[in-house]
Amino acid sequence: MFDRYESGERAVLVHINFTQEGEWEDLAEFEMLVSSAGVESLQVVTGSRQSPHPKYYVGEGKAQEIAETVQFTGAEIVIFNHALSPAQERNLERLCKCRVLDRTGLILDIFAQRARTHEGKLQVELAQLRHISTRLVRGWTHLERQKGGIGLRGPGETQLETDRRLLRERIKSILRRLAKVAKQREQGRRARAKAEIPTISLVGYTNAGKSTLFNCITSAGVYAADQLFATLDPTLRKIELADVGPAILADTVGFIRHLPHDLVAAFKATLQETQEADILLHVVDASDERFRENIRAVDEVLEEIEASEVPSLLVMNKIDTMDDQSPRIELDDEGVPRAVWLSAKEGRGIEMLFDALTMRLASNMVAHRLCVPPAHQGRFRSQFFNLRCIQQEEYDEQGNLLIDIRMKQADWSRIEKREGALLGNFIVT
User: Would I find Metal-binding among this entry's keywords (predicted)?
Assistant: First the structure.
């Protein structure tokens, strides 16, 4: 579709420091992104500006420096640690005589490499097509010149319109298929909600250790590596929590500063697991000196996907790389767990995480001691046994069953509705 320079794996990186905080990016994180994409960095060109230049994003002198660096190093691609407009990309490509990629395109490329499931591949393709659709004109600049006279008009506009129409049709097709996937996910969520099974969703900045923690808890064996966006496809596993029972743990894609809006929109079905979770485990790389900024970046994405109201528990991970930290639970002023310090890699502090989750999720649990006469013991005991809520049971001298139960408030309400006032007569105050 594109008449372009051949793209390669050797790149010149461009990182600009801006005085405006909203434009600020991290160079070390950028280099990790490039490494995650499998690109070899030949040289990093840095500079400072107050605001982006409309033509080249950088100043004309810096743009010329980039072009000379490309010629000197023999690089096949220039990658910017910033979002470029289609016009800026086109101008830089003409100047550097090689392909130019911005931060959004780089993240999309990493996602394209990592997607494994049918749904993940569809979501990535949708994001790529939306990104490409604004840049189509660049691929056909050689066809855009309209010549005067009958029979001499170029085919550029016709070809461009054809490509746009094909893109629109492909996007519609992907959206239809993703709608089916979303419907299937919704059915699964409804079934879990009906069974009152709580969902715990892992969220956090990319490379915070979510998949390592997920594997440590569930032995799922999902791919985990010290690289950005190692996880793209969501994985669900069932776990058991004391006093709560079964729960679903979901591993999701990591977040990053200035996450492309096309990606957020494309991964809406996946991120639905986060929106409808009972609690979020916000995994944080505690060893990162900028972990507070990473927490803020994740909170911004959670707000964007309308999941900021979901209760969350901080998981301060990677304490194995720190000298002065040990596994512990942090409580707030009301004695409710707000953070757990642990090492997912070494498995230290996992029991404390389970305890904290139990304390957070058990708030909707009820506990009662019942004295059930012989005539009703069979029916009631079988109901409690099926709900796996019996804590202790014994018989008194009159043959009454003394039973201690602990169950979800919703289950207790259902039994109360079914049994009416009879159940209330058995409660020992």
Answer: yes
Residue 301 sits at φ, ψ, to 5 deg, of -70, -40
Q: Strand 337-341 relative to strand 312-317: parallel, antiparallel, unpaired? A: parallel
Give pLDDT tens digits for 333-352.
888 899 999 998 888 999 99
Domain 365-428 class, CATH top level: alpha beta
Residue with tokens 């929590």: 241
For residue 87, say whether it is annotated as part of any ligand binding site.
no
DSSP of 102-143: -HHHHHHHHHHHH--SHHHHHHHHHHHHHHHHTTHHHHTGGG
Alpha-carbon distance 82 to 100, whole Å? 12
The DSSP element (H or E) to which 328 belongs, if any, is strand 328-331
Could you confirm whether domain 10-101 is CATH 3.40.50.11060?
yes
Written out in words, the top-level CATH class of the domain with range 196-362 is: alpha beta
pTM: 0.67
Q: Which two tokens stand for residue 206?
A: 């990319």
Is 233 annotated to bind a ligand? Reply is yes
Write 139-148 long-range contacts (CB < 8 A, 24+).
139/1, 139/2, 139/3, 139/4, 139/163, 140/3, 141/90, 142/3
Is residue 264 marked as binding?
no
CA-closest candidate to residue 224, choices 236, 207, 202: 207
**What is the spatial distance between Cα 11 and Cα 102, in angstroms, rounded to a whole number?**
12
Local structure of 181: helix, strand or coil: helix
- Is 194 annotated among the ligand-binding residues? no
- Please write the tens of the pLDDT for every residue from 73-118: 988 889 998 888 888 988 999 999 888 888 888 888 887 877 777 7
Residue 333 labelled as part of a binding site: no
Element (H, E) at 249: strand 245-251
pLDDT at position 223, please?
54
Q: What average pLDDT does the chain have?
A: 79
229 is in an annotated binding site: yes
- Per the annotation, does 254 bind a ligand? yes
User: Is pLDDT larger for residue 172 or for residue 267?
Assistant: 172
Q: What stretch(es) of the chain map to CATH 3.40.50.11060?
A: 10-101
* pLDDT score at 360: 85
Cβ–Cβ under 8 Å, residues 256 and 232: no
Flag whether 207 is marked binding.
Answer: yes
| 232 labeled part of a ligand binding site | yes
